[in-house]
Amino acid sequence: MNSRYVRLGVLWLLLLTVPWWLPLVGGYTQLGTRVLVYALAAMGLNLLLGFTGGLSFGHAAYYGLGAYGVGLTLKYLAPSTPLALVVGTLVGGVAATLLGPTLMRRRGVYFAMITLAFGQLFYFIVVRWNNVTGGEDGLTGFVRQPLHFGHYVLPLHDVAFYYLVLFCFAVATAIMGVLLRSPLGHTWVAIRENRRRAQFLGIPVERYIWASFAISGFVTALAGGLNAMLNNFTSPLDLYWVLSGDFVIIAVLGGMRSFWGPLVGAIIYLYAQDYLSSLTDNWQSFIGLIFILVVLLFPRGMLGMLRMKARSA
Amino acid sequence: MELLLFDAFNGLIVGMFYALMALGLSMILTLNSVVNMAHGGFLILGAYLAFTLEPYLGFWGALVAGPIVAMVFGLIVERVLIRPIYKRDDPVYSLLLTFGLALIMQDVARTIWGPAGLPFAIPDALNSSLSSSFFFLTGYRAVVVAIAFFAVVGLMLVMRYTRIGIRIRAGIRDLETVSGLGVNIYVLRAVNFGAGCLLAGLAGVLAAGQLGLTPTMGESLIMPSFVAIIVGGVGSFLGSVLGGLLIGVAAGVMTTYYPAASDAVIYGIMALVLIVRPRGLMGQEGMFE
Amino acid sequence: MSLLRLQNISRSFGSLRALEEVSLEMSAGELRAVIGPNGAGKTTLFNMVTGFFPPSSGTVWFADRAINALSAERRTRLGIVRTFQITEIFPDLTVFENLRIGVETAARSNALPWMSRARRAGLERRVDELLAVTGLADKSERVVSELAHGDQRVVEVAIALSLEPKLLMLDEPTAGMGDEETDNMVSLIRRLHDERQLSILFIEHDMDVVFGIAQRITVLDQGRVLAEGTPDEVAADRRVRAAYLGEAA
Question: Which chain C residue has its CA at the smallest distance from A179's CA?
């Protein structure tokens, strides 16, 4: 037990001090923020994918809806960062919740197909509704607003914004952590391990999958909203199926069965993407190659492999 | 009225492409239990290769060669990449694998042939209209309809009456039992995958002549094909075909009245079907439940 | 008290009559075996009692209550719990975690997003009890998929036990087991029956096991009840010997 707390302590210490050490290794604060955003999105997805066994290949939809929720709020509704985040999270989360019933009885690849298709549905809605969303060109004209604490105003420059994202990350991961250690979390894992057996225990499996789907949608939507504020921009690419695939590979690469797997995956994947795109025009092929290699050679992901080594030791 | 017929007919043609793609996807989905995200890649493989070979083989030669190359490549992919992961019980892996393959295929196509659209030459003889009152009924479009029709019917006949077709259908229901009966399921799965890719390649060549040739055409045709399968019903090949035609025509008709929503209507139909009749129009109960 | 009563149960699948006018009555606290050649309808009987499908005709009574219309989940909550021929457990979880699901289910707390430490400790105590009863205490932290087949089947019985069954139905509990594992399972079944007065209905092919522990035996053959009685009565029954025991001997 002690080692767990030590590892957590080290992790949070590192996360809290990113603006200091990341530039020293050739990075910059904004990159750290990006990693957190993607990690949060993938961790939200992983609640469903890795812990409940629901294969969603359309989670970018909720991410993008969160992004547009934030952008549209800031642009048309009110210049308030907290409000925008709440709206964005709700829009994406509610969309996921509403979709749940259509998916509940399906499993495996068919479940994935439906999530994929619904992802595209939202993509097209956003693209076609261009007088509101800006269409293919994306949504501009909004900027993340300073935070107001009574009289004190905190402008959200790079470093301050990083801490806002880290705060949201902390809250979201704390909630997910509590959930996964609760009976609800145990039930989700049981469903993942043997859906039939869970059913034969009398557990109404569909409802639990729905709950997991909905909650994961809220978390991923929050990530999307934060991303919109990071870039002060969002576009339909934030809802595109390729991004959905990115979230899945991040979760798998880091280790689907580990809570922090997606964080590890996000670090590796974003670094690889950055590095490869600066190296060659054909970075997309190399990204595709990563997908294939991970599947064939590292299916358990980084943390999964570490765990296996620890077990056999 | 003429505009409506024009749009509807265009939609029917596109629907044929969806149908061919959906049929191949459905075969691979049900027997190989793989969502072939790279199906669009096989489509463009067939199309671009036909384009490259056309100067040497002519239109008809390219029409035959393109799908065959797609099929061969599909057989290689199945053997090298997909077979190792059949025994994995989590479908996420096959999805990620074909996803990565799709990324690679699209990028390679873009690199070799460029990101711009390329013109795919169809014989002059087919270019002219067959009817004075329906100008859009060109010879080429008639050929597309005919070839797609015969391909689908041919496949249905193979499925129903040939030994391998029957084995594939039995395998879809219960692969373990079929294997236990002594059938070589490795060959079965390979043939099935190859056949699916053949259809994708065929769709690609036909679509190239109609829609032009771009690296993104695979992407834009694969998503509606998924919808076609959902609408038509998983487990029903005929359903996938009809689903494809249905959404193609629906999208076509929509362009007459409200062009902005013409691709969204495809997903609208899907949502409607999922709510009202979740197993699809012709789907079987109990598939993937 | 009559715990389980099958009243003229028939079940057809198309033209196949799997069960034909089967009547059976089992008292609370009884240890009953169901035997018969392959295809006799034993598993069909189990499936029907646990609610996978209704009988084509006839009524199933559980504790003097007609349960034909009840779903499988409902029956589980009522106390009819079964294990399966093919081990159905939660593979990547430890023994402890496997049992914990059952305990949480029995405590109706599956959906709780949070649980107080006291309550959590209470549930964990229950898991420890189950581990002790089934002899799995030393393996509680082992991942179930890595256990020997025999131990896995014990885990499965333990999961069933965690649901606090009133009627425990074991489908071929010793299937695929070696001698030592079989002995282990047999003594477990005996313990559960003797110490906890648990009502147990089990399907078995191993006649040593059956005649070793069963109080009463029901013999099925081609969907019908061929004979029923104490082990001695059944062993002496000529029809049974002809149809079944004769071949096996």
Answer: C113
Separation between Cα atoms, residue A65 and residue B139, nearest integer Å: 45
User: Taking a C-beta distance cutoff of 8 angstroms, is the pair B185, B192 a contact?
Assistant: no
* Residue C119 CB partners (closer than 8 Å, separation 6+): C109
The range of the structural domain enclosing residue A79 comes to 23-240
- Distance of CA A182 to CAs A185, A260, A304, B134, C21, Å? 5, 17, 22, 67, 47
Closest-approach residue (CA) in chain A for B287: A106
Burial grade of B50 (CB within 10 A; 0-12, 13-18, 19 or more): buried
Give pLDDT tens digits for A30-88: 999 999 999 999 999 999 999 999 999 999 999 999 999 999 999 999 889 999 999 99
The segment(s) of chain C belonging to CATH 3.40.50.300 are 1-79+166-249
Q: What is the pLDDT of residues A178-211, one digit of tens each?
A: 999 999 999 999 999 999 889 888 899 999 999 9
Beta strands in C156-215 (DSSP E): 167-171, 199-203
> Which of A182, A208, A300 is the best mutation test for C, with the most CBs of C within 10 A?
A182
What is the overall mean pLDDT for chain B?
87
Contact residues for B56 (Cβ-Cβ < 8 A; gap 6+): none
ipTM value of the model?
A: 0.90
Q: Fold for domain C1-79+166-249?
A: Rossmann fold (3.40.50)
pTM summary value:
0.90
**Which residue segments constitute the domains of chain B, with CATH numbers given?**
2-276 (1.10.3470)
Give the containing element (helix H, strand E) for A41. helix A29-49
Distance set, CA C100 to CA A4, A47, A70, B275, C71 (Å):
22, 20, 41, 36, 24
The shortest C-alpha distance from C101 to chain A (Å) reads 7
Burial of C226 (0-12, 13-18, 19+ CB in 10 A): buried
Side-chain-side CA neighbours of residue B256 (13 Å) = 15
Q: How far is C179 from chain A (nearest CA, A)?
A: 27
Cβ–Cβ contact B177 with A under 8 A = no
Neighbours of chain C (3+ CB pairs under 8 A): A
Q: Which of A117, A248, A284 sits opposite B103 (nearest CB)?
A: A284
